[in-house]
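#struct-pred
JK: can someone run the complex with tryptophanyl-5'AMP? inputs below
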Amino acid sequence: MDIVLSGIRSTGKLHLGNYFGALRNFIRMQDENKCFFFVADIHSLTTHPDPRMLHENTRNVLVDYLGAGIDPLKSVIYVQSDVPETMELYLYLNMHAYLGELSKTVSFKDKARKQPENVNAGLLTYPTLMAADILIHHADKVPVGKDQEQHLEMTRRFARRFNNFYNVELFKEPVAYNFGEELIKIPGLDGNGKMGKSEGNAIYLSDSPQEIEKKVKKALTDSGPTVPDSPKPDYIENLFTVLRAVSTPEVVNHFDNLWNRCEIRYGDLKKQLSEDIIRFTTPIRERILEIEKDEEYLHKVTAEGAERARESAAKTLNEVRQVMGFKKF
Ligand code: TYM
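RT: done, structure tokens with the ligand placed:
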């Protein structure tokens, strides 16, 4: 049985990108693996949320996890800050992570550009905290979207480096996982790169049908193709990528054919797209609305999850401390 682990930052509610990039696979993997899924609240501190928002968003991600179908009877669900062992491993891994490699990470360069007033050391060492999350449970597979690929490469490098330095075979080298397929990137509907919580272009799992319709209606289009079989511009391809995620192959084929014959009507495409997104998110939204009222259940899930996660993490940390030479006098 493989060990599976993944997390999502508590920076907002979860959207279709989080779902198709990561969450869908969390749910698919629960039956046949030992799974750990957590809310990465410490990682979200890199953007300086205020304390109320931090708590609210941690709760949002937890509720979305449960609403989407992560089952606490099958998987260990926990909040990152409830497992302080992770932060101790993060500290040790930082001693073997170098400024050159950390400052070259794409996500660091990206964030440093977006928040020049707050290029903190937590941003720089984001990949070592992520490696600690993964290595503390000896995970084999990490279901994530395309944007996390480099972080997984770094995790493998840190694991290898630690093993070589101490001449042990303690850490495994985990892989970014999507059932053997390319990792997923769901675009925003505004034609601007990926769908993201902070990009203002996301459709959330908890959006109402009216909100979804409104967002899809606003998606960027043009006056339509004039040459048969021409390639789609990025912003139209984006609509098709989302359609492929939520619709049947027949529907996608139908609109592809209309595009190729220059007969596509964007109004029809958008109508189909909203209908299919709504059909897909409605049962999830209904469960979210139920679960978010149940304080006792949320408490029970996180308390039990923390206990199980800490048990697994403490075991690894013990091994790490031994290997590093920490011994009692
Ligand atoms: P975060 O919170 O940015 O995103 C959570 C997950 O959602 C995926 N994702 C997407 N996939 C496809 N298309 C999109 N538009 C899209 N937007 C987000 C991300 O790839 C990710 O899988 N560093 C992680 C959180 C983390 C973590 C970990 C993950 C912390 N420690 C250990 C795995 C293992 C992050 O920022 O995710």
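RT: quick notes.
The pocket of tryptophanyl-5'AMP is lined by residues 5-9, 17-18, 20-22, 40, 43, 130, 133-134, 142, 144-145, 147-148, 151, 184-186, 194-196 (CB under 6 Å).
DSSP finds 13 helices and five strands in the chain.
JK: thanks, will look after standup
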